[in-house]
UniProtKB/TrEMBL annotation:
Pfam families hit by this protein: GTP_cyclohydroI
One GO term describing the cellular component: cytoplasm
CDD domains the UniProt entry points to: GTP_cyclohydro1
Name this polypeptide is given: GTP cyclohydrolase 1
Gene3D superfamilies the UniProt entry points to: 1.10.286.10, 3.30.1130.10
Reaction(s) catalysed (UniProt annotation): GTP + H2O = 7,8-dihydroneopterin 3'-triphosphate + formate + H(+)
Keyword GTP-binding (UniProt): yes
Length: 208
């Protein structure tokens, strides 16, 4: 079994080469998109009445374009990219909880960041995993469901629970201007939805 992709193959070198090519394509695609993104940021700044020849803005469109690519790099990743080599066979059958995972993303409504903590619990079914994070344009409600669905796809667990508590800069900086407000969303699947005791154990241990 190839440790890189999980598939059955005798040629692990070929698998590594294929993986490297996929990464290279992603880098090439990002580079090819940079001029379009730079032009878009330049247009935004002109629309705001800024002078692009001003010293402080000379390299801003390029910097902003690269920053946006970094913020949205999750679009270049699949669940296999994130979890490869991180799924292990294990007979553990008690709830596993990972708390206080730092996260950030961009609200798709305003393209303004939100950030906070993710708390994840799952009931293993012969497999456990080390977790990473995804960065995409999302609304928080969708991100919560996406994380739960990704873990379900990778592990086939008996249940998954995900809670996100986040500060939305679109609320803090504009509109309602709620400086200390947090938005909490949750998704419960399998045993966490169907079994009250399992759900309460997760919520108690994560202090919700």
């Amino acid at each position: 079994i190839c440790l890189q992709c999980g598939g059955r193959t005798l040629d692990r070198t070929a698998c590594r080469v294929a993986s490297h090519l996929d990464v290279s394509r992603g880098v090439i695609n990002q580079r090819s998109q940079l001029p379009t993104l730079e032009a878009a940021y330049a247009s935004i700044l002109r629309g705001l009445g800024e002078n692009l020849e001003r010293e402080g803005l000379l390299k801003t469109p390029g910097r902003a374009a690269k920053a946006m690519q970094f913020f949205t790099k999750g679009y270049q990743e699949s669940i296999e990219d994130v979890l490869h080599n991180a799924v292990f066979n294990e007979d553990h059958d008690e709830v596993v909880i990972v708390k206080d995972i730092d996260m950030f993303s961009l609200c798709e409504h305003h393209l303004i960041p939100f950030y906070g903590k993710v708390h994840i619990g799952y009931l293993p079914n012969k497999k456990v995993v080390g977790l990473s994070k995804l960065a995409r344009y999302v609304i928080q409600e969708r991100l919560t469901k996406q994380i739960a669905a990704a873990i379900t796809e990778a592990l086939k667990p008996a249940g998954v629970a995900v809670v996100i508590e986040a500060t939305h800069m679109c609320m803090v900086m504009r509109g309602v201007q709620k400086m200390n407000s947090k938005t909490v969303t949750s998704t419960m699947l399998g045993a966490f939805r169907e079994d009250l005791k399992t759900r309460e154990e997760f919520l108690t241990l994560t202090k919700f």
